[in-house]
Structures
1.
Amino acid sequence: MLRRLLVSFALMIGLVGGLWSAGAQTIIDVTEGTIKPYPIAIPDFNAEPGTEEVARQISEVVRADLVSTGLFATGDPAAFIQKDLSIGLQPRFADWRIIRQDGLVVGQVGRTPDGLLSVAFRIWDINGGEVYRIPVENRQTGRTELAAGQSFTIAPDSWRRLAHKVADTIYTRLTGEDGYLDTRIVYVAETGPKTARIKRLAIMDADGANQRFLTEGRNQVLTPRFSTSDQEITYMSFEGGRPRVYLFNIQNGRQEVLGNFPGMTFAPRFSPDGRSVIMSQAQNGNTDLFLMDLRNRQTRRLTDHPAIDTSPSMSPDGSQLVFTSDRGGSPQLYIMNTDGSPLSCPSGGRDTACRITFGRGNYSTPVWSPRGDLVAFTKQTRGKFHIGVIGTDGEGERLLSEAYLDEGPAWSPNGRVITFFREARPGSGPKLWSVDLTGRNLRQIVTSTDASDPAWSPLLD
Amino acid sequence: MIRGLPASILLHVGVIASSYIVLPIFDQPLEQVVIVPIDLVSVSEVNNIAPVVRPAEIEPEPESVPEPEEVEELLDEPDVIPEEIAPEEDIVPPAAAEQEEAEPEVPEDVIPEEPEPEEEEPDPEPEPEPDKKPEPKEAEPDLLDDILNDANLFNRERETAKAPPPPTPEPEVEPDTPPPDARRGVGDRTANTARIESIVLSQMRTCWGTLEDLPEPERLTVSVRVRLNTDGTLSDDVELVKPRRAPIGDRYMSVAIDRALRAVRTCQPYRLPVEDYEDWEEIVLNFRHDG
């Protein structure tokens, strides 16, 4: 009894003490802010003799990459005060503070003895007055350590990738998110008149450089999707007059039909582990979802419903998938367990598939974010098309774009940016666009032909 | 005509009679408007302040606090350079190795050329400063004495100017009797706190990057404690209150922490009322998502 009294007395003293100390200082809740680009100065990298031109080009691509994310503003080089930068020296922070830069990148381009192009760089925290430590894998120990700088080497003709890697490192260090700039986008390149449209598979760097065709255009292709290993694409082709799902190996150019289903197969997509492909199959007037194991080519039915089920996309852990179905009367988005077991629906009750969209209009082409928290979709309502995102529990729907036709969203591998295709007005031809998941930074990715159905590769090695 | 005459007389009589009744009203004196000069004073300054102000402490602080800090910073900088170079030799992969071999030579050659360290290194600079500060305070009155001794008029002024010093010898009295310029009032200063809060929030709005673009923003609340100088700059490094350090493996919490720390640092100086310094000398900021 006495002990209990003592304990409660001590607790009371603690509580009063806590309240006293809490009351002694002002406590402020900050809930409002603005996403402002991070001001970072990236002067042209220093160059060893013979690399001046490529050093300038690399610096330019690094700047363009970071600006394209919408999260960085690279300062005007004409305003830079300190010109005598060197990777081995600490910059004069005051010179950069006065022109309101928060970060500074100092780099050095050179050649290794075996002829490779090399770049070494450091990122300085101007306000903190120190270098940003970068996680770097120690090749001797195999462990990741925090280093004061980073360096990359690459074959000279791949200098753009070197620049993308530098930009990704800066992006990751300063935003905390994985990079996505050293990636590629595969898409359908469209040429010719409307009546005789030629649709070819094409691929380019994520910034629109190095565009090239992958197929010759004898057969129409649709909905290309990248595997998690960046060398393989799955898509739908009308080869032989029948729409079927194909695999395409970018490295050796080989393509093969995936399974020999009766009826037609379409809307394929790799599972996150890259070991299977999920797709729609139409048979006897009904469309359902199927999963094919790529190792043994066995298929498994995922849905069995008289309604049309299509456009499946798996969650990053592979346990669930989101798809479009008109089982409720109009096309809406549904979530189900991959193993077909019933799940608790956010809207109440238990079912084998839960509807997550209840807004006005039709929802289609859902894509689960690689981050796992959102589903991107196409929404058609009141004669307009939108790209939007919604929480996997059906909460927080947000429309990111609006146009005569916006369709086919695809996530960047870090789940931060969405690319899609847009037809601004009837007959204007589709073009590729990208937008940040907050709805900011909407920008066109310029392609040499009309382009549709973009899909993002994972980060390159 | 004959009929009209009595009517006219009656009307005139009526008018004159009514004027006798009504006119006295206008005879009453008008209300006098007294023009009172008014100062706009926020309510909190009058009725919601603590009774005691500590002028003696506040004044010296801006001079003494920031300067040692600068000294520290400056002294730090030369140290950083060798540190930065040394770790890089170990860590930066082979490609940079060549440069690094050259680097130690370059910095050694170049650092002395850099104006910064040269300006910074001389320790005497920081040392005299603290010494100088007290000196001028004593010296100035002496000089003034010399110059103004002849003029009685100025002497009088000087006496009044010297009047404040007498309170300093009697600081023990301070707790009981507020100094002459201390504002009288009662209350727990909540209104002051509200004012400080609104100023900080309006500044923070442009400095903080929000959490809306991160997954599960509700769980990413970050609390930091900041200590400020009277000029609104950070007097100390920002202290993480919750979470106490960036959790390993929780990258989005790390992003949230980075954003909070960056907001607090880039937003300084905070433009807060100096007279309420004790209310914002130390502030805890909770950066959270308001869904």
2.
Amino acid sequence: MRMLIQLIITGLALGGVYSLISMGYSLIYKASGLMTFAQGDILTVGAFLGLTFYRFLKLPYIVALLLTMAVAFIIGFLLEKGVIRKLLNKNVNAIYIVLATIAVSYIFQNGAQAIWSSKVEYFPSVFSTDSVAVLGVNVQPESLLCIGASMICMILLHFFMTKTRIGTSMRAAAMDSMAAESCGINVSLNTGITWGIAAGIAAIGGIFIGPMYGVYVTLGSKLGTKGFAGAVMGGYGNMYGAMVGGLLLGLLETLVAGYISSELRNLFAYIILIIFLFVKPTGIFNEQAIQDV
Amino acid sequence: MLKTDGVTIRFGGLVAVNKVSIHVRKGQITGLIGPNGAGKTTFFNCISGVYKPSEGHVVFDGKNIEGMRPHKVNAAGMARTYQVINLFRKMTVQENIMVGMHSRLKSNFWSDLLRLPNQRKEEKFVREETEKWMEFVGLQDMRDHEAGSLSYGKQRLLEIVRGLASEPKLILLDEPVAGMNSKEKEEFDALLRRILNLGVTILMIEHDMKLVMGVCDYVYCLEHGSLLAEGVPEVVQNNPDVIAAYLGGDE
């Protein structure tokens, strides 16, 4: 029982980070109809930025978090405006844009290595205690922070998308960009903001996971493919599906690692991805991969 | 209200719209007719900013707007509907109208989140406005229905009020009665009159000759991208070139 509780908490913490990445994939897919490979590496950049603000500059945790989010937002926004939009304007095939994101992904990875470090950097703990007791089990307080904060991000994002003017216009632009334009919505600006938000939430995923995994250049690329798997499980393009899919994948993977073998966890995660693509490509939330006319 | 001067658009070697000059007068209903493939919708796209004309000028409300992006054209006071209905199908009727109001709202994320007083005021304003527009076309009982689930005719009506919700000076309607049932069609000229009474000028592409001849103050006829005839409905209707174009161009 103790072990199960322990695994569930660890699994949800990891799943929360997957969800943050998955939501970015879904937002971007909805807004641009594209897949990006840079999402995981933005998490890496976010982790290093957090490290810089929190460990090196000794800023308060919450300030480091907000600054990281803001910088990542700008990176995502500029990525859309400077690379994606430029290629779209050349009317190239979508696959070239996806390939360009692979290049961007490696630029981020190697850039992070050049700027920061090629070693595993430790991310100082956020709380003064090493463990807290939950239902009689000792857990790292950072994993609780990770679960709580990713939930808050999801709730905020939900309110942002459904209750605010910008969110509503973003959904409108994603559904029908031409109609949105003729309703007075600046679709190009909206798309940039979407990429910025996707980058911002991935980057805070980096800060949350830093204290548990350490910070290193390939941190995000591993998490990024898992986040992709989570997005597919939930229904690619569906924001809520991405949240659930990410959490579920983190949970299942951790249970496999705990009860069967930790060597099987990645194998298991990608087998689930393939099974979903074959059996239920529309995911848990039944998101239509092909738009109905 | 709206004047075009020699608007031309070429796609490669093909001239889709050739030197079209029209004048839409304030407070009138202007009709644009012509056989299929005459370039009517392409011409609409040149006016509303979807395409940039290769040549010519579009002057709206005293300003040159050719080549302006569609969202800027909307903000300048021109709304439009599409021949192929372009609603946000997965949003509710009310949300669709809310998006239509986009350019009139100012709220941002933090004021929405913190429910600041001006935000609550705006929310109330949005509720009242959307309510008003739903009643305008009799959709008030369907406010929470997904737009995609409405009948074809009701979708047309919703698209029109979504356009009107931006409080435009001019609305472009692209085949507004296509797909409507006979009752909706019959009520449509009354709706056009009510739109005019709001102070909104109308430019309309329509194939339904009974409607065009009944409500339009002035009619332009396009064929092969060029202006074939213009005038009050009776004159255009009896123009031999127009009759020939509609009957298949028998010389």
